[in-house]
Design a protein that fits this description.
single chain; alpha+beta; Udp-n-acetylmuramoylalanyl-d-glutamate--2,6- Diaminopimelate Ligase, Chain: A, domain 1; Beta-Lactamase; Alpha-Beta Plaits; five-stranded mixed sheet; PucR family transcriptional regulator; PucR_C-HTH_dom; PucR_C-HTH_sf; CdaR-like_regulators
Length: about 550
């Protein structure tokens, strides 16, 4: 029997089903069937598929219901089967009108319909030339779908798949890091020999010292639409075994659904977390008890004192920046480094993506805190992220009370803005490093501040604007070393005599480092200049 919508309506499981719209598409070819388990079904469905649903994922979303059939038709699906009454009292009239207009079959299912069985019947009809393989696929589908619908996690799904096919199974992420193995090889040493040059076609897998040849494994991408979640591998099997191939594809689809569901849940939790943190940073939560109790719902042990670390990727490509932020969040790179270096539990660290940077809260009450400890951790983080380009890290002062969080966050953010002005490469900056700027910011007379900068540094600024040589960088260098010229020359990678020449030029431009009082005024003027420049006003 040809696999069309018309013939699917003749199947036993569709007894009592009624075509209520889109009759012009009755002869649409059907190659597959899908259950609608998540609202964003469009990322994993395939063209020429029949979607089976109760509308549960979107039954409260009128907009989503209004847009469902046009979107499915645009994806070249074969049609949709809806079982009403349990979650929606009736199939919306707008859906019927859309189905008729688009020639998109809309089938009303009777109350006794078993959706999983209907999907299986669709699959049986479309794959009737391979009935033996289909039965095995259905067996895999039923077993794993049962676990999926029960809410079982990846561990159970991987283990069940391995048991069904009687072969070891390995789950990789997109970078071919091994994330999980089935129990039958869990105690064995499993690794990739050629990880730096790896792709799905040239894996050199080693298990317990034995290299696994390509003929003895099958690997499949776990993908939903444009989203890739990693790879699923079956080891010690015949690559030509179609049953294994079909089972692997089915398992990959179900795992993609599991990843997609988990991502949706995490995204929702992340949004709630970000909203909660914004409320604290905007001083909308003043009760410590309220904040601590709410933080517990996110697995966060919020205790004081705290320190805020603001981390920003200072790259121009927004797509790359977003992907790197997502990678850091998903893999908990920052939290794991902090936890390891100061030996505190992950629940005492919380990271959120706020205003184009990662904001990290660290409970510093459980160890002997000092500035140097966090500065060293920040250096380790910068080294770990050097492949991501320029990175800025700002560290706040120690926070004793919840109402101090907004100011501390502002300090950490300001640190990055100041650091961007001072550094061409990645940098870290602590609140104490620019404390004088925080005082300067309290002065309201901007004209007075700019006049002071012009009096002390005006000739220097004018020189740098008209010459290639930046003497302001030389001034920064000597200020950083407390006027230790030998150390300055070393830090700037220039000859000592070159530095002496530049210092003479600074003197000619009114920078007198021989007068102690004058030095103090120059340092103040320089800090005012840096503050204005960080705001783009100088």
């Amino acid at each position: 029997m040809e696999s069309t919508v018309a013939n699917i309506l003749k199947l036993k499981g569709f007894n009592g089903a009624k075509l209520i719209g889109g009759a012009n598409g009755i002869n649409n070819e059907v190659k597959n069937g899908f259950l609608m388990e998540v609202p964003d079904v469009f990322s994993y469905i395939e063209e020429k598929s029949l979607l089976v649903t109760t509308l549960y994922p979107i039954y409260k979303d009128e907009k989503a219901k209004d847009e469902l059939i046009p979107k499915l038709a645009s994806k070249n699906l074969s049609g949709i089967c809806i079982k009403p009454q349990r979650y929606v009292p009736r199939i919306p009239e707008v859906m019927v009108e859309q189905a008729n207009k688009l020639g998109f079959p809309l089938i009303k299912l009777p109350q006794g319909s078993n959706l999983s069985n209907l999907v299986n019947e669709i699959l049986e009809l479309s794959l009737n030339k391979h009935i033996g393989i289909l039965k095995f696929r259905n067996f895999v589908n039923n077993k794993m779908m049962e676990l999926f619908l029960k809410g079982e996690g990846l561990n159970t799904l991987i283990e069940e798949f391995s048991r069904i096919i009687d072969s070891p199974v390995i789950l990789f992420d997109n970078d071919f890091n091994i994330k999980q193995t089935s129990e039958n090889i869990k105690e064995k040493l499993v690794y990739l020999e050629n990880k730096q040059l790896v792709n799905a076609e040239n894996l050199q897998l080693v298990i317990d010292g034995t290299k696994i040849e390509q003929d003895n494994y099958i690997i499949n991408r776990i993908k939903a639409g444009n989203n890739s979640f990693g790879y699923l591998m079956v080891v010690k099997c015949n690559r030509e075994d179609e049953s294994i191939l079909v089972a692997l594809n089915q398992a990959s689809l179900l795992l993609a659904s599991e990843f997609h569901k988990n991502r949706a849940i995490l995204e929702k939790e992340k949004n709630y977390l970000n909203s909660f943190i914004r409320e604290m940073l905007e001083n909308n939560i003043s009760s410590k008890t309220e904040a601590v109790n709410k933080a517990k719902s996110f697995g966060w042990e919020l205790e004081f004192p705290q320190v805020i670390i603001d981390l920003k990727l200072l790259v121009q490509d927004e797509k790359i920046k977003r992907e790197n932020y997502e990678k850091l969040i998903e893999e908990k790179t920052i939290e794991n480094i902090i936890s390891k270096e100061i030996n505190i539990e992950l629940r005492k660290i919380k990271l959120a993506h706020i205003d184009d940077s990662l904001v990290i809260f660290v409970n510093v009450g459980s160890f002997e805190y000092n500035k140097e400890i966090l500065m060293n951790i920040a250096k380790i983080i910068l080294n770990e992220l050097k492949y991501m380009g320029k990175v800025g890290i700002g560290i706040s002062k120690r926070i004793e009370k919840i109402n101090e969080l907004p100011l501390a966050y502002k300090e950490a953010k300001n640190g990055i803005e100041i650091g961007k002005t001072l550094n061409k490469d990645s940098f870290l900056i602590h609140y104490e490093d620019f404390r004088v700027i925080n005082l300067i910011k309290e002065i309201k007379d901007i004209k007075l501040l700019k006049k002071y900068v012009n009096e002390k540094l005006g000739k220097l600024i004018e020189h740098d604007n008209t010459h290639d040589l930046s003497l302001m960088n030389t001034l920064k260098g000597v200020l950083d070393t407390n006027f230790n010229l030998q150390k300055t020359a070393k830090n700037m990678y220039i000859h000592y005599n070159t530095l002496r020449y530049r210092m003479e030029k600074l003197r000619e431009l009114g920078i007198n480092i021989d007068d102690g009082f004058e030095i103090g005024e120059i340092v103040l003027a320089y800090n005012i200049y840096i503050w204005f420049k960080s705001k783009g006003e100088m």
